[in-house]
Backbone:
């Protein structure tokens, strides 16, 4: 969890590309990890597993504290991603897998109209691995 928070603070994202040994070993990441104190907050714990409340407190050098909380993580059934947010996440995963952008965009375009598609077999070749 410390790494996840550190990389979010440093890069404002935590995609597949950030989860590597190289990124983990960077000096700025290690320094930020050392500044994070992850613990189970009794208030969050009392909310129960069905709520999974998160409480964040950032202590600044000047002594002030910034706080924030989320009752449900983005992407959970109670706080779902929009289509565009899911498409952005998919683009990141496809880029990490080194898929061609054209393939990625065809899949996104297809899934945007999924409810109106009469034949789902069109999706299978779009998802198939590229042969070299």
Residues:
């Amino acid at each position: 969890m410390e790494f996840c928070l550190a990389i979010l603070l440093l890069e404002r994202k935590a995609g597949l590309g950030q989860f590597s040994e190289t990124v983990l070993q960077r000096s700025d990441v290690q320094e930020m990890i050392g500044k994070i104190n992850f613990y189970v907050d009794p208030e969050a714990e009392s909310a129960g597993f069905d709520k999974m409340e998160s409480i964040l407190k950032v202590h600044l050098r000047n002594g002030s504290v910034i706080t924030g909380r989320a009752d449900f993580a983005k992407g959970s059934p109670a706080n779902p991603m929009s289509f565009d947010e899911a498409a952005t996440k998919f683009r990141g995963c496809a880029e990490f897998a080194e898929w061609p952008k054209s393939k990625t965009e065809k899949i996104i375009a297809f899934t945007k109209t999924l409810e109106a598609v009469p034949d789902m077999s069109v999706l299978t070749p779009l998802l198939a691995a590229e042969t070299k």
